[in-house]
Design brief:
By secondary structure, the chain is mostly helical. It folds into two domains: 57 residues, Orthogonal Bundle (434 Repressor (Amino-terminal Domain)), CATH 1.10.260.40; 116 residues. It is 69% helix and 0% strand. The chain has ten helices and no strands. The longest helix has 37 residues. The protein is elongated. The mean pLDDT is 83.
């Protein structure tokens, strides 16, 4: 992991542990100024300092994961194509402490999946309520049932939002997998940030 991602991750982990820069410096046996410079991205820490930071913060900053990082990022983004929330969650939970990029982009995938899951539930509710509303509407709809095949219309039109949602998820997953492989910024449209 390189700067500035390294510094941002150190600051994030330190804050999660409820530590000040001075407390982290004391536990790592370095000066508080060193921690400040690492977190701001001014310097790359020495190997020993990086190892000590990893032990204190419970995170593997090692470079041995870098060759496989792009593979896992691609798998993570491609798993979002199928609107299955559990696969990205398991991948992110397993890999988040090995790479800052996997942690950050995994959160984006999870936010997208949660948003799409909620949208899918809304569309599913509409799918169930639409036929009931037609049947309960009264005489005018029932009287016109001979002219317009309402059941056929319901079967064709109501699932359309679910199909469009699935296509949208596939496009977003494929595009963001390609973006992560080419080190471009990853963006999921219509995503609500539930996981921060």
């Amino acid at each position: 992991m390189n700067q500035p991602e390294l510094g941002l991750k150190v600051a994030e982990l330190r804050q999660q542990k409820g530590m000040t820069q001075e407390q982290l410096a004391e536990r790592c046996e370095v000066s508080p100024r060193t921690i400040q410079r690492i977190e701001s991205g001014e310097v790359d820490p020495r190997a020993y300092t990086l190892h000590t930071l990893g032990e204190v913060l419970g995170f593997d900053f090692g470079e041995e994961n870098a060759p496989h990082e792009n593979f896992w990022l691609a798998i993570l983004h491609l798993s979002s194509m199928f609107c299955v929330f559990i696969v990205p969650l398991l991948l992110w939970s397993w890999m988040k402490n090995r790479s800052y990029k996997i942690d950050r982009q995994g959160r984006q995938v999870l936010n997208f999946q949660i948003t799409m899951l909620l949208a899918g539930l809304v569309f599913l509710a509409v799918l169930m309520l639409f036929p009931a509303a037609i049947l309960l509407a009264g005489g005018t709809v029932v009287d016109q049932a001979e002219e317009i095949p309402w059941i056929l219309l319901t079967l064709v039109c109501v699932p359309a939002p679910l199909v469009l949602l699935g296509i949208f998820c596939m496009i977003q997953g494929a595009v963001n997998a390609l973006r992560s492989l080419t080190d471009q910024p990853v963006r999921y449209a219509l995503s609500i940030p539930f996981v921060k």
